[in-house]
Write a structure and sequence with these properties.
homotetramer, alpha/beta, 8-stranded parallel β-sheet, 12 helices, globular
Chain lengths: 341, 341, 341, 341
Amino acid sequence: MPAANRLTGIYTPNLVAYDDRGNVNEAETRRYIDWLIERGVHGLYPNGSTGEFTRFTPEERRRITTIIAEQARGRVPILAGAAEANVRETLKACEYYADLGIRAVAIVAPFYYKLGPESVYAYFAEIGRNTPIDVTLYNIPLFASPIDVPTVQRLADNFERIIAIKDSSGDIPHMIRMIDAVRPNRPEFSFLTGWDAALMPLLLVGADGGTNATSGVVPEITRKLYDLTTSYQIDEARKIQYDIVRLFDTMIYSAEFPEGFRAAVSLRGFQMGRGRQPLSDKQQTDITLLRRTLQCLLSEHGFVDEPVGGCPVGSADVTSTTEVASIVQTVVAELQKPGMI
Amino acid sequence: MPAANRLTGIYTPNLVAYDDRGNVNEAETRRYIDWLIERGVHGLYPNGSTGEFTRFTPEERRRITTIIAEQARGRVPILAGAAEANVRETLKACEYYADLGIRAVAIVAPFYYKLGPESVYAYFAEIGRNTPIDVTLYNIPLFASPIDVPTVQRLADNFERIIAIKDSSGDIPHMIRMIDAVRPNRPEFSFLTGWDAALMPLLLVGADGGTNATSGVVPEITRKLYDLTTSYQIDEARKIQYDIVRLFDTMIYSAEFPEGFRAAVSLRGFQMGRGRQPLSDKQQTDITLLRRTLQCLLSEHGFVDEPVGGCPVGSADVTSTTEVASIVQTVVAELQKPGMI
Amino acid sequence: MPAANRLTGIYTPNLVAYDDRGNVNEAETRRYIDWLIERGVHGLYPNGSTGEFTRFTPEERRRITTIIAEQARGRVPILAGAAEANVRETLKACEYYADLGIRAVAIVAPFYYKLGPESVYAYFAEIGRNTPIDVTLYNIPLFASPIDVPTVQRLADNFERIIAIKDSSGDIPHMIRMIDAVRPNRPEFSFLTGWDAALMPLLLVGADGGTNATSGVVPEITRKLYDLTTSYQIDEARKIQYDIVRLFDTMIYSAEFPEGFRAAVSLRGFQMGRGRQPLSDKQQTDITLLRRTLQCLLSEHGFVDEPVGGCPVGSADVTSTTEVASIVQTVVAELQKPGMI
Amino acid sequence: MPAANRLTGIYTPNLVAYDDRGNVNEAETRRYIDWLIERGVHGLYPNGSTGEFTRFTPEERRRITTIIAEQARGRVPILAGAAEANVRETLKACEYYADLGIRAVAIVAPFYYKLGPESVYAYFAEIGRNTPIDVTLYNIPLFASPIDVPTVQRLADNFERIIAIKDSSGDIPHMIRMIDAVRPNRPEFSFLTGWDAALMPLLLVGADGGTNATSGVVPEITRKLYDLTTSYQIDEARKIQYDIVRLFDTMIYSAEFPEGFRAAVSLRGFQMGRGRQPLSDKQQTDITLLRRTLQCLLSEHGFVDEPVGGCPVGSADVTSTTEVASIVQTVVAELQKPGMI
């Protein structure tokens, strides 16, 4: 595979807009895709965790990818989530996406059941042997069976159709160990991270890019962070990374994932509709408060106007950061309990 | 609801037999269902975790329940797993199962994403408001978002169609707290446990029954444990509980769940076929070894002949127990990391 | 060892009273010990987790045990916590306690560092080879390196001076596995539980007794639960077990351990003084509220008068249980997480 | 406090050498301290986790710090671990170390009991109010109660004697959140990391230095990594970081901590003696194997000769890395789990 064709840069795990009846809003989703491409994301990633892939039927997942492929018209490559109920169904999805002409699929390790390394290997091996399209492994130990370093190495060594891994653990030594284990035999293998809060340091230790949910909200900033970091403008990149952490934390810890991201995208001018996971009254109130915080964060960068009544400044900012930090502690701990780091 | 109609006793979370092409083997599954009913299980539970519900398509899940309802012909009540991709799809499944005439559905809390209590409440509340069939909550914090005690209480207080909870945490104080919180307002609410290794003590502290995977392998023994325990024959029950722990541990920790259970059922004379999760060569060898251990355990109770070459006795038994114990420590710890206990 | 000398029954992990300067209040501690013995506890257990052993100097730990041995004057046996900084120091403490004439020591697995099974075995093996006094292993995986089942079995098989285990995991299948592994070779080995919320079911599956913190607060009730359970008065025992769960949860989850127990003991009429772990202003307010809740729980059993203003009744009780349940969920999760990584 | 006096650079959490009877080997410890200083470490850190502080008596901890202070003779600053059984004892140690003229103390959050944020705050607040010497908070959630971001911020805002935090979580977004919360009010506050496997990226996101156990083994390399990273020689630094991960993983995951580090230091020419935690026969054999692996890693950098028989090359290296990775997965998971409940 030519190096030019490697997966690098920022792939947006795009959200899907809904209409009033809870169906996919095609027109608004297409408008959103155009907007993302125009703001510089390197690729698109439908059917990711941010895209709520588990909440769609198999037919809807195919339809969403088709819409995005049509709309992108080859302007950027597409990485499509292809995990289905079992290997046979997943391979059927791979065939469908191959026919659509997309760049590669991403397949999350089996979830619900927590499988050990041998089973995870056997699952991806059967896919690696039979896939008609390049495959990206997707490791998200928070939600699915972990793919450990020796398993990544065995799969990379044995199946040339497996060309990349997207890792959402956010664990930097883990990334170093993967790269160290895989690159000697597979120098063109790609390493992408899904953990925005550590994008800069992960790129600096050797990752090739990211599938970062913040790029669906502030594609300009995530792209800028990528460019500054890969050109070693460390002090400038660090400043942006801190901003991304603040924004990411606010979106991910103040509401049930990915509702915070949906709220933020609506501030950028899109009608996202109500998500498929019902929200309690209390949660809907929380999201109204979150919108205000997000509007302040986005207005600092000139993306939107300040909310009516203005935003806190100076030390107030610090307080706000601290409040979020308190939530972060609790929620991160909660989320990472099953983690593999 | 008349007390006579409460969910009590042992519901078997039945496995599904596969044919050579990996499809549902209807004839063998029907034969297995008859066998279970004849051996005294109080009810059947298709589309549970033991039944690998996530590895089937939505159409297959409906078909499996239909087969089992047809075969049971009202001899025992059926509790059918009805969780689908989102609330709308789950409610469609509830309607389908209501039309089939089954007793109740069981719905696992949302999985993949780990949702907090407010979201879990909102999810089940929307189901509770709209379901045409009685609903059993299914709490399995190992695999899905936990349903905590206050959420169980809120749901029980507000939705009369929610009539029971199946709890697979295995945590006894947690069961006590649930019963203590729910029974004052809902004296007929049922509490079932899915954790065979603590069936006797859970019944003694107040649970009404269980959905226990061992009852799919040794229905005679699980039923006997239930009868001895509920009639307070403590010393006799304890002895059976110890046997169940040995058997359960061997099946659950020596192979990827539920392969150990499949291996054991095949020893009882059923052609279960190969499961849908691929196994590595090493895993297939492990299962061959496991079959031998299981054959020895089952032969002690006269269910099958000893394997050729015989079984270890005396101190050898202890060693074998210890080896399993060592596996148990590791795997239980691993499995319970995300737990909610 | 004669069976008559086995460790059975309820050993109270007694608190220590402090004076105004934060030193041990000998007179009040002696008065408390008398009170416990008069109310029927089978034994005493200084230097346990409830007794805050880590917050004393080595000299203070020896002094506390001496006071209690003097005061007990042989009326009940004493099990003394003997864990010190390393094996050598621990063995010196064992010698000291042997000279005091106490029944046995309890030694927690090494803590701070989380050691694996080989290291835990090596640690207790060196103690088992050299101790002049009977040793009880102390497994509390929440706070110290876990002692897994194969390790308990190896130690029991190899060292006759190791005569018991106190297990505070609260995990019932784990207790079954331990008993199943150890009893064939060591029928007189004792199994004690430190988890009050599951005392009844643990006794019913085969445990010999408990070292239960509630017995330091309501020795009458814990003793009654033990008597009812061991005589198989199941329905009566269950009711008491539910009461103990409510009381235990309130004490353990409404304040930093063991402050809730200190507050409750002070309601029984003892001047416990301020603990050695500083409390914030907010925590001191919380304990004032907790005292009121505890006073209501204790007044239901006639141990103390109702607080001025009275206690909630009926549905209010349920609410209170639910509120505690909510705290329980959060705090248990908090306690069981590995940290913040 | 003048910026020139801030804690920055690499502080070595030094091991302690033992003599044949298990006592501190003063002469060899002094020789080791000289060797470290000559190789460029910026400071020394006795009574850290690497230095096995919990396995010494209070008197031994004071003695060790005195030896090191005497030997350093002001050539480098000393950060001394001062945690004792309770606040009063800890403050006495602070006074002792202040009299010794060392730069600052490091105090780990309370351990054994897992305390919540309010208690952790109250503990350090009482220390902050009364300490006669600068205090570094020590956050190591693997072993002790976590110090969360809002607590760090409250302590930094309120107590000027608290001047730094050593964080061993290895979590990079956590470091970013701490710096973001604390620096606005305390620009001179220092942030040190104890997680060698992420030293480079942590420095790049803003940390000031580290207390890194690898610097006790290869002070030349850890110092070089620090210098390359802080001068933004990214490609060169990354290569060293990868080497450090390999070495760190080998030492930390192939033997019970800190035995791997002791084995490595002995390869550098010091008689470290047997540690205080007993090792089983199997563990002693494992360390012999580990020594060989370490000797190969160290010989690659010219620090020692290759072992007799030579070292693996090329693909063998990869294998070796993978084997360690496999151990890492298991052991990290093991370390991070809450226990066996």
